[in-house]
Amino acid sequence: MNKPLKLIPIGNSTGVILPKDVLARLRLHQGDSISIVETSGGLELRAFDPEFEAQISVARDVMKRRRKALRELAK
């Protein structure tokens, strides 16, 4: 699975072609959306899940507003 992928120009942007086996493992098809998530181990590609993204957005908002309280709880 450690096969290098080449970045290619797409208009004024840059893209990458994902192999069929990667698309199958992610259960993706042409036209689907993905999200890129930064983790402690690097970046992860995930199938885009609007419900999950909405939940994460709410969690980020709460963490931003309650930063001081969360720091105290972490001690």
What does this entry look like structurally?
- The protein has about 80 residues and is α+β, with helices and mostly antiparallel strands.
- It has one domain.
- Helices cover about 40% and strands about 25% of the residues.
- It contains 3 helices and 4 strands, in the order E-E-H-E-E-H-H.
- A two-stranded antiparallel ribbon has the order 1-2.
- Strand 3 and strand 4 form a beta hairpin.
- It is elongated and about 45 Å long.
- The N and C termini lie far apart (about 40 Å).
Describe the secondary-structure layout.
Elements: E1 7-10, E2 13-16, H1 20-26, E3 34-39, E4 42-47, H2 50-65, H3 67-74
Antiparallel strand pairs: 1-2, 3-4
In a few lines, what is going on in this structure?
This protein is of the alpha+beta class.
Average pLDDT reading: 88
Strand arrangement, largest sheet? 1-2
By DSSP (H or I, 4+ residues per run), the number of helices equals 3
Strand content: 25-35%
Total E-strand runs = 4
Structural class: alpha+beta
Rg from alpha-carbon coordinates: 17 Å
Give a quick account of the main beta sheet: strands, pairing sense, barrel closure: 2 strands, antiparallel
Low-confidence stretches: none
Helix content: 40-55%
| H-E string | EEHEEHH
Shape: elongated
Number of domains: 1
Distance between the termini: 40 Å
